[in-house]
Structure formats: C-alpha cells, structure tokens
Amino acid sequence: MDKNNGWGKIMVGARLEKMVEAGWVRSWSRLLTKGLREGDRWEMTEGMVAHAASNALARNLLESDCDSLLIVDSDADFEPDLLEAFREHEAGFEYDALQAFHLRRGWPPEAIWFKRDENGVLRNCVVMGETPEDVALVGTHCVMIRREVFKAMLGKKDPASHDWFYYPRHKQMTEDAAWSFDVIKKGFRLGATT
Fold first, then answer.
1. Residue 166: Cβ within 10 Å count
2. CB under 8 Å to 146, separation ≥6 — which residues?
C-alpha cells in the first residue's frame, strides 16, 4: 500500500481487560458507529495477556483484507473521533507504526515516548507539538500498524504459531519493546504523535 494514501482499510482491535469502565465502552461504541468506513472492521480479544492479545489481533489482520491495525486497550482514554484523527493526520502517513501519545501508569504520570540519545541509551521524552516524531519504540496501548510490518516479520513462518509480540528470555523488556526493536531491525519506521 502506498503510504501517501494513508492507512487504507483499518481493522480496529480492542484488547479487553477483566474490567472495562463505562467511559471506555461509550468511546468504543461511538468509534465503531461513527469512525468505521466501508471495508473497515473491528475485532476484540478477551481473557488474554497483552502479548497474546496483540498476536491474535495480528493474525486477524492477516486473515482479513485490511491494510492497517489500530490496537486500543480497554483502559485507554480516547475521544470517539480517534480513528478519524489517525486517518486524517497526514504527517503520520510516513510511518509504518504510529503510537498515540499516552501517559505511564503510576506516579508521576510521565509520557511514554522513547528515543535514543547520542550514546544509544533509551530516554523517556516529553514532546509538545502536533508533528509526529521518530521514536525508538512504540507502546501497543494505542497504536496504528501497517499490514506490511506483520507480513515482513512473518516471512515464511506459519502465522498460526508465530509470535510477533513476545517477552525475550532473560531480559527485562516488555513485549511491545521487543516487537519495536525487531521492527526497526527490519527497516521499518516508528513514530509517535500527540
């Protein structure tokens, strides 16, 4: 798919946690009723840990004819026009995965936006502005990912058993960080936007 044409047909995937608040259900319902266009679809996972849910959504994407996957966690706080905002944000089209800006759980509520400094060390950054920026990793709390990323990472492996998202053994790393580092090694570009 040509990046100049945006994200194409989008699959919106929700990763449901055990308890879902009414505000999220309201935003999700509005997103589906007002944000989906012809050819778009939605999927939900439940009763799965984050990496298993992300892998299930990636498999669903590859079984569909959608061009991109928007992953939204059921504890994400988002406006009902989230899908439209991603679709219309032309500056974000140049990325292969684009994370929405969000805050880390806990105190203080810092932005989760990682870049590497001049020594290659990951740093948590706070960026104020409307332009997306390159980042060293994206979180899967709320992120748009192109189909080509999953296909390239899959190669000739069986999609039914392949894990795009995983926790590396003997490393203190999240599943989305491991995925991001693999994606960058394949030459894809990751970004984050406010």
1. 16
2. 1, 7, 67, 68, 96, 97
